[in-house]
Write a structure and sequence with these properties.
The protein is an alpha+beta fold. It has a single domain, classed as Nuclear Transport Factor 2, Chain: A (Roll). It is built from four helices and six strands, in the order αααββαββββ. The relative contact order is 0.20.
Amino acid sequence: MTSAERNGRAGFRWPDDAARPWQLAVLGGHAPQQVRTGNPLPFHDVRHQQAHQFLVDEAYLLDAARYGEWLDTLTDDIHYFAPVRVTTAAGAGFDTSPGMAHFDENKYSLNRRVARFATEHAWTEDPPSRLRHHITNVRTFACDDDAHLIVESAELLFRSRGDVNEAALISCGREDLLRLTDQVWKLARRTIHLDESVLRMQNLAVFL
Protein backbone atom coordinates (compact mmCIF):
# COMPACT_ATOMS: atom_id res chain seq x y z
CA MET A 1 0.00 0.00 0.00
CA THR A 2 1.42 3.39 -0.98
CA SER A 3 1.67 6.42 1.30
CA ALA A 4 -1.10 8.14 -0.65
CA GLU A 5 -3.38 5.13 -0.26
CA ARG A 6 -2.69 4.92 3.47
CA ASN A 7 -3.27 8.60 4.09
CA GLY A 8 -6.43 8.60 1.98
CA ARG A 9 -8.20 6.27 4.39
CA ALA A 10 -9.52 8.12 7.43
CA GLY A 11 -8.37 6.55 10.65
CA PHE A 12 -5.41 4.77 9.08
CA ARG A 13 -2.80 7.55 8.80
CA TRP A 14 0.77 7.43 10.00
CA PRO A 15 4.02 9.14 9.01
CA ASP A 16 5.74 7.81 5.89
CA ASP A 17 8.80 6.70 7.84
CA ALA A 18 6.87 5.10 10.71
CA ALA A 19 6.10 1.47 11.33
CA ARG A 20 2.60 0.02 11.10
CA PRO A 21 0.21 1.46 13.73
CA TRP A 22 0.39 -1.54 16.04
CA GLN A 23 4.19 -1.47 15.92
CA LEU A 24 4.10 2.00 17.51
CA ALA A 25 2.29 0.59 20.56
CA VAL A 26 4.06 -0.30 23.79
CA LEU A 27 2.99 -3.94 23.49
CA GLY A 28 3.01 -3.98 19.69
CA GLY A 29 6.42 -5.52 19.26
CA HIS A 30 5.03 -9.04 19.55
CA ALA A 31 2.05 -8.39 17.24
CA PRO A 32 1.63 -10.59 14.16
CA GLN A 33 2.99 -8.78 11.10
CA GLN A 34 0.75 -10.00 8.27
CA VAL A 35 -0.71 -7.30 6.00
CA ARG A 36 -3.27 -7.24 3.21
CA THR A 37 -2.59 -8.02 -0.43
CA GLY A 38 -4.70 -7.02 -3.42
CA ASN A 39 -8.27 -5.84 -3.62
CA PRO A 40 -11.13 -6.77 -1.27
CA LEU A 41 -12.47 -10.29 -1.66
CA PRO A 42 -15.91 -10.52 -3.29
CA PHE A 43 -18.81 -10.93 -0.90
CA HIS A 44 -19.58 -14.39 -2.27
CA ASP A 45 -16.07 -15.63 -1.42
CA VAL A 46 -16.33 -18.24 1.33
CA ARG A 47 -13.47 -16.57 3.22
CA HIS A 48 -15.37 -13.30 3.36
CA GLN A 49 -18.50 -15.09 4.56
CA GLN A 50 -16.54 -16.90 7.28
CA ALA A 51 -14.89 -13.65 8.41
CA HIS A 52 -18.25 -11.87 8.49
CA GLN A 53 -19.76 -14.68 10.56
CA PHE A 54 -16.82 -14.47 12.96
CA LEU A 55 -17.54 -10.77 13.60
CA VAL A 56 -21.27 -11.36 14.08
CA ASP A 57 -20.69 -14.28 16.46
CA GLU A 58 -18.12 -12.21 18.36
CA ALA A 59 -20.60 -9.32 18.68
CA TYR A 60 -23.11 -11.74 20.21
CA LEU A 61 -20.59 -12.91 22.82
CA LEU A 62 -19.70 -9.32 23.76
CA ASP A 63 -23.33 -8.24 23.92
CA ALA A 64 -24.06 -11.16 26.25
CA ALA A 65 -20.93 -10.45 28.35
CA ARG A 66 -19.72 -14.00 27.70
CA TYR A 67 -16.15 -12.84 28.02
CA GLY A 68 -14.64 -16.21 28.87
CA GLU A 69 -15.91 -17.61 25.58
CA TRP A 70 -14.73 -14.45 23.81
CA LEU A 71 -11.19 -15.00 25.11
CA ASP A 72 -11.26 -18.45 23.51
CA THR A 73 -11.71 -16.78 20.10
CA LEU A 74 -8.36 -14.95 20.47
CA THR A 75 -4.94 -16.31 19.56
CA ASP A 76 -2.23 -16.54 22.20
CA ASP A 77 -0.25 -13.74 20.49
CA ILE A 78 -3.23 -11.37 20.18
CA HIS A 79 -2.54 -7.63 20.08
CA TYR A 80 -5.60 -5.49 20.89
CA PHE A 81 -4.90 -1.82 20.24
CA ALA A 82 -6.92 1.42 20.26
CA PRO A 83 -4.71 4.50 19.89
CA VAL A 84 -5.84 7.90 21.15
CA ARG A 85 -7.13 10.04 18.27
CA VAL A 86 -5.99 13.65 17.96
CA THR A 87 -7.13 16.52 15.74
CA THR A 88 -4.39 17.69 13.37
CA ALA A 89 -4.09 19.97 10.39
CA ALA A 90 -4.70 18.60 6.92
CA GLY A 91 -1.57 16.99 5.56
CA ALA A 92 -0.02 16.37 8.99
CA GLY A 93 0.30 12.69 8.12
CA PHE A 94 -0.98 11.35 11.44
CA ASP A 95 -4.13 11.50 13.55
CA THR A 96 -3.19 9.45 16.62
CA SER A 97 -1.04 10.32 19.60
CA PRO A 98 2.20 8.27 19.68
CA GLY A 99 2.59 6.24 22.86
CA MET A 100 -0.97 6.83 24.04
CA ALA A 101 -3.78 4.29 23.77
CA HIS A 102 -7.16 3.46 25.27
CA PHE A 103 -6.26 -0.22 24.81
CA ASP A 104 -2.80 -1.70 24.31
CA GLU A 105 -3.33 -5.30 25.33
CA ASN A 106 -1.97 -8.81 24.95
CA LYS A 107 -3.63 -12.10 25.89
CA TYR A 108 -2.47 -11.86 29.51
CA SER A 109 -3.78 -8.34 30.09
CA LEU A 110 -7.10 -9.16 28.40
CA ASN A 111 -7.43 -12.19 30.67
CA ARG A 112 -6.81 -9.93 33.70
CA ARG A 113 -9.47 -7.47 32.52
CA VAL A 114 -12.00 -10.29 32.19
CA ALA A 115 -11.03 -11.83 35.55
CA ARG A 116 -11.65 -8.49 37.25
CA PHE A 117 -15.30 -8.56 36.18
CA ALA A 118 -15.82 -11.53 38.51
CA THR A 119 -14.45 -9.68 41.55
CA GLU A 120 -16.13 -7.25 43.92
CA HIS A 121 -13.93 -4.44 42.63
CA ALA A 122 -15.47 -4.12 39.13
CA TRP A 123 -17.56 -1.09 40.07
CA THR A 124 -17.75 0.18 36.51
CA GLU A 125 -19.64 -2.96 35.48
CA ASP A 126 -21.72 -3.70 38.59
CA PRO A 127 -24.53 -3.52 37.64
CA PRO A 128 -23.38 -4.57 34.18
CA SER A 129 -23.88 -2.44 31.09
CA ARG A 130 -26.48 -3.25 28.49
CA LEU A 131 -24.54 -3.48 25.25
CA ARG A 132 -25.28 -3.74 21.56
CA HIS A 133 -22.41 -4.02 19.08
CA HIS A 134 -23.58 -3.08 15.58
CA ILE A 135 -21.14 -4.34 12.92
CA THR A 136 -21.27 -3.19 9.29
CA ASN A 137 -19.19 -2.25 6.21
CA VAL A 138 -17.21 -5.49 6.36
CA ARG A 139 -14.42 -5.89 3.80
CA THR A 140 -12.01 -8.81 3.69
CA PHE A 141 -8.51 -8.99 2.19
CA ALA A 142 -6.22 -11.92 1.53
CA CYS A 143 -2.70 -12.08 2.97
CA ASP A 144 0.46 -13.67 1.60
CA ASP A 145 -0.52 -16.97 3.21
CA ASP A 146 -3.87 -18.74 3.26
CA ALA A 147 -3.96 -18.97 7.06
CA HIS A 148 -4.58 -15.25 7.56
CA LEU A 149 -7.17 -12.65 6.53
CA ILE A 150 -7.36 -8.90 7.07
CA VAL A 151 -10.90 -7.78 7.89
CA GLU A 152 -12.10 -4.19 8.00
CA SER A 153 -15.36 -3.29 9.70
CA ALA A 154 -17.26 -0.35 11.12
CA GLU A 155 -18.74 -0.64 14.60
CA LEU A 156 -21.32 1.35 16.56
CA LEU A 157 -21.52 0.42 20.23
CA PHE A 158 -24.64 1.33 22.22
CA ARG A 159 -24.14 1.22 25.99
CA SER A 160 -26.72 1.79 28.69
CA ARG A 161 -26.09 1.33 32.40
CA GLY A 162 -28.35 1.91 35.36
CA ASP A 163 -31.57 3.95 35.35
CA VAL A 164 -30.25 7.50 35.59
CA ASN A 165 -27.26 7.97 33.30
CA GLU A 166 -27.86 8.69 29.65
CA ALA A 167 -26.99 5.99 27.16
CA ALA A 168 -23.72 6.42 25.27
CA LEU A 169 -22.49 5.62 21.78
CA ILE A 170 -19.04 4.88 20.39
CA SER A 171 -18.31 4.77 16.68
CA CYS A 172 -15.10 3.26 15.36
CA GLY A 173 -13.42 1.50 12.49
CA ARG A 174 -11.52 -1.73 13.06
CA GLU A 175 -8.82 -3.58 11.17
CA ASP A 176 -8.56 -7.19 12.29
CA LEU A 177 -6.18 -9.99 11.48
CA LEU A 178 -7.85 -13.39 11.56
CA ARG A 179 -5.84 -16.62 11.71
CA LEU A 180 -7.08 -20.08 10.76
CA THR A 181 -6.19 -22.35 13.70
CA ASP A 182 -7.32 -25.99 13.66
CA GLN A 183 -9.93 -25.09 11.02
CA VAL A 184 -11.32 -22.29 13.22
CA TRP A 185 -10.79 -18.56 12.61
CA LYS A 186 -9.39 -16.66 15.59
CA LEU A 187 -8.56 -13.02 16.18
CA ALA A 188 -4.80 -12.40 16.11
CA ARG A 189 -4.70 -8.61 15.94
CA ARG A 190 -7.20 -5.76 16.25
CA THR A 191 -6.50 -2.09 15.65
CA ILE A 192 -9.40 0.16 16.64
CA HIS A 193 -9.67 3.68 15.24
CA LEU A 194 -12.20 5.65 17.27
CA ASP A 195 -14.12 8.36 15.44
CA GLU A 196 -13.87 10.90 18.29
CA SER A 197 -10.83 12.38 19.99
CA VAL A 198 -12.84 13.01 23.18
CA LEU A 199 -14.99 10.03 24.13
CA ARG A 200 -18.49 10.70 25.40
CA MET A 201 -18.48 7.68 27.65
CA GLN A 202 -17.54 7.57 31.34
CA ASN A 203 -15.13 4.70 30.89
CA LEU A 204 -14.05 1.95 28.50
CA ALA A 205 -14.59 -1.01 30.78
CA VAL A 206 -16.01 -2.90 27.79
CA PHE A 207 -14.52 -4.32 24.62
CA LEU A 208 -14.90 -3.00 21.06
